[in-house]
Design a protein that fits this description.
The protein is mainly beta. It is 8% helix and 25% strand. The protein starts with 14 loop residues before the first helix and ends in a 15-residue tail after the last strand. One of its GO terms (molecular function) is ferric iron binding.
Length: 184
Protein backbone atom coordinates (compact mmCIF):
# COMPACT_ATOMS: atom_id res chain seq x y z
CA UNK A 1 0.00 0.00 0.00
CA UNK A 2 1.39 3.41 -0.99
CA UNK A 3 0.56 6.29 1.32
CA UNK A 4 -0.22 9.64 -0.25
CA UNK A 5 0.40 12.84 1.72
CA UNK A 6 -2.64 14.85 2.71
CA UNK A 7 -2.79 18.01 0.57
CA UNK A 8 -2.25 21.38 2.22
CA UNK A 9 -5.19 23.45 3.35
CA UNK A 10 -5.56 27.15 2.68
CA UNK A 11 -4.67 29.14 5.79
CA UNK A 12 -6.73 32.07 7.08
CA UNK A 13 -8.50 34.41 7.25
CA UNK A 14 -9.48 33.33 10.77
CA UNK A 15 -6.38 34.52 12.61
CA UNK A 16 -8.05 37.03 14.93
CA UNK A 17 -10.32 34.29 16.24
CA UNK A 18 -7.72 31.90 17.58
CA UNK A 19 -4.14 32.97 16.95
CA UNK A 20 -3.88 36.61 18.01
CA UNK A 21 -3.52 37.37 21.71
CA UNK A 22 -3.03 40.48 23.81
CA UNK A 23 0.59 41.59 23.89
CA UNK A 24 1.59 39.17 21.16
CA UNK A 25 3.41 41.89 19.23
CA UNK A 26 5.31 43.14 22.28
CA UNK A 27 8.48 41.14 22.72
CA UNK A 28 9.32 43.90 25.22
CA UNK A 29 7.14 46.75 26.52
CA UNK A 30 7.29 50.10 24.70
CA UNK A 31 9.25 51.79 27.50
CA UNK A 32 11.84 49.01 27.82
CA UNK A 33 15.46 50.20 27.50
CA UNK A 34 16.56 49.60 23.91
CA UNK A 35 13.03 48.96 22.64
CA UNK A 36 12.62 49.45 18.89
CA UNK A 37 9.78 49.15 16.44
CA UNK A 38 9.95 46.40 13.80
CA UNK A 39 7.24 47.16 11.27
CA UNK A 40 6.29 46.77 7.65
CA UNK A 41 3.49 45.89 5.28
CA UNK A 42 2.40 42.64 3.68
CA UNK A 43 1.60 43.29 0.02
CA UNK A 44 0.13 41.09 -2.71
CA UNK A 45 1.42 40.74 -6.27
CA UNK A 46 -0.26 43.97 -7.39
CA UNK A 47 1.28 45.90 -4.48
CA UNK A 48 -2.05 46.07 -2.62
CA UNK A 49 -2.13 45.55 1.15
CA UNK A 50 -3.10 42.18 2.60
CA UNK A 51 -5.32 43.23 5.53
CA UNK A 52 -5.84 39.80 7.08
CA UNK A 53 -2.35 38.28 7.23
CA UNK A 54 -0.55 37.15 10.35
CA UNK A 55 3.18 37.79 10.85
CA UNK A 56 5.22 35.85 13.36
CA UNK A 57 8.83 36.61 14.33
CA UNK A 58 11.60 34.78 16.16
CA UNK A 59 14.89 36.44 16.97
CA UNK A 60 17.99 36.39 19.14
CA UNK A 61 18.53 38.80 22.01
CA UNK A 62 20.86 41.79 21.43
CA UNK A 63 23.80 39.75 22.77
CA UNK A 64 23.08 36.99 20.22
CA UNK A 65 21.70 34.53 22.74
CA UNK A 66 18.66 32.53 21.75
CA UNK A 67 15.92 32.73 24.34
CA UNK A 68 14.41 29.39 25.27
CA UNK A 69 11.98 30.67 27.89
CA UNK A 70 8.65 28.92 28.32
CA UNK A 71 5.46 30.93 28.36
CA UNK A 72 5.89 33.27 25.42
CA UNK A 73 2.11 33.63 25.29
CA UNK A 74 2.03 34.77 28.94
CA UNK A 75 4.49 37.63 29.04
CA UNK A 76 5.50 39.16 32.35
CA UNK A 77 5.97 42.69 31.02
CA UNK A 78 9.76 42.89 31.20
CA UNK A 79 11.39 39.61 30.08
CA UNK A 80 12.46 39.46 26.43
CA UNK A 81 10.96 36.32 24.86
CA UNK A 82 12.39 36.40 21.31
CA UNK A 83 9.00 35.53 19.80
CA UNK A 84 5.96 37.54 18.73
CA UNK A 85 2.86 37.39 16.58
CA UNK A 86 0.94 40.29 15.02
CA UNK A 87 -1.96 40.60 12.60
CA UNK A 88 -1.89 43.08 9.75
CA UNK A 89 -4.31 46.01 9.77
CA UNK A 90 -6.40 47.35 6.85
CA UNK A 91 -3.31 48.87 5.28
CA UNK A 92 -1.45 45.55 5.51
CA UNK A 93 0.77 46.91 8.32
CA UNK A 94 2.17 44.85 11.17
CA UNK A 95 4.18 46.26 14.09
CA UNK A 96 6.27 44.69 16.84
CA UNK A 97 8.00 46.23 19.84
CA UNK A 98 11.26 44.37 20.26
CA UNK A 99 15.02 44.72 20.67
CA UNK A 100 17.65 44.84 17.94
CA UNK A 101 18.74 41.24 17.40
CA UNK A 102 22.37 40.27 17.81
CA UNK A 103 24.36 37.83 15.71
CA UNK A 104 24.02 34.25 16.91
CA UNK A 105 27.61 33.48 15.88
CA UNK A 106 30.63 35.82 15.69
CA UNK A 107 30.84 37.63 12.35
CA UNK A 108 27.37 36.52 11.27
CA UNK A 109 24.72 38.98 10.17
CA UNK A 110 21.93 39.45 12.74
CA UNK A 111 18.39 38.90 11.51
CA UNK A 112 14.76 38.43 12.48
CA UNK A 113 13.17 35.17 11.29
CA UNK A 114 9.78 36.02 9.79
CA UNK A 115 6.81 33.74 9.09
CA UNK A 116 3.79 34.90 7.09
CA UNK A 117 0.35 33.30 7.13
CA UNK A 118 -2.23 34.71 4.71
CA UNK A 119 -5.39 33.80 2.85
CA UNK A 120 -4.77 31.79 -0.26
CA UNK A 121 -1.50 30.30 0.97
CA UNK A 122 -1.33 26.54 1.27
CA UNK A 123 1.65 26.79 3.62
CA UNK A 124 3.27 29.46 5.70
CA UNK A 125 6.04 31.51 4.09
CA UNK A 126 9.43 31.81 5.80
CA UNK A 127 11.94 34.57 5.24
CA UNK A 128 14.54 36.63 7.07
CA UNK A 129 14.81 40.33 7.75
CA UNK A 130 18.51 41.10 8.12
CA UNK A 131 19.56 44.08 10.22
CA UNK A 132 21.13 46.76 7.99
CA UNK A 133 24.35 48.58 8.73
CA UNK A 134 27.12 45.97 8.92
CA UNK A 135 28.02 45.52 5.26
CA UNK A 136 30.87 43.10 6.06
CA UNK A 137 28.58 40.76 8.01
CA UNK A 138 25.86 40.99 5.36
CA UNK A 139 28.41 40.28 2.63
CA UNK A 140 29.74 37.23 4.48
CA UNK A 141 26.35 35.72 5.32
CA UNK A 142 26.01 32.31 3.62
CA UNK A 143 22.25 32.54 3.05
CA UNK A 144 22.46 36.03 1.54
CA UNK A 145 25.40 34.93 -0.62
CA UNK A 146 23.27 32.08 -1.98
CA UNK A 147 20.60 34.51 -3.21
CA UNK A 148 20.80 36.17 -6.62
CA UNK A 149 22.44 39.55 -6.04
CA UNK A 150 19.53 41.51 -7.55
CA UNK A 151 17.13 39.94 -4.99
CA UNK A 152 19.23 40.21 -1.81
CA UNK A 153 17.78 43.61 -0.92
CA UNK A 154 14.39 41.94 -0.32
CA UNK A 155 15.95 40.27 2.73
CA UNK A 156 17.44 43.39 4.33
CA UNK A 157 15.31 45.67 6.50
CA UNK A 158 15.55 49.45 6.27
CA UNK A 159 16.49 51.52 9.31
CA UNK A 160 14.28 54.43 10.37
CA UNK A 161 14.18 56.67 13.45
CA UNK A 162 12.19 54.09 15.45
CA UNK A 163 13.86 50.84 14.41
CA UNK A 164 13.45 48.79 11.24
CA UNK A 165 10.98 48.56 8.36
CA UNK A 166 10.57 45.30 6.46
CA UNK A 167 7.91 45.13 3.75
CA UNK A 168 6.93 41.66 2.57
CA UNK A 169 5.91 41.32 -1.08
CA UNK A 170 4.15 37.97 -1.62
CA UNK A 171 4.71 37.84 -5.39
CA UNK A 172 5.39 39.96 -8.46
CA UNK A 173 7.99 42.68 -8.96
CA UNK A 174 10.19 42.95 -5.88
CA UNK A 175 8.88 39.68 -4.44
CA UNK A 176 10.48 38.89 -1.10
CA UNK A 177 12.81 35.90 -1.15
CA UNK A 178 11.15 33.05 0.75
CA UNK A 179 12.95 30.05 2.18
CA UNK A 180 12.09 26.46 1.32
CA UNK A 181 11.09 24.79 4.58
CA UNK A 182 9.93 21.47 3.16
CA UNK A 183 11.90 18.38 4.02
CA UNK A 184 12.35 15.66 1.42
Amino acid sequence: MTLVPTPGQTVGPFFAFALVHDGGAELVPHGHPGAIRFTGRVLDGAGDPVPDALVEIWQAAPDGSVVRAPGSLHRDGFTFTGWGRAPTDRSGRYTFTTLTPGATTPGAAPYVAVTVFARGLLDRLLTRAYVPGDDAALGADPLLASVEEARRATLVATADEHGFVFDIRLQGDGETVFLDHRRD
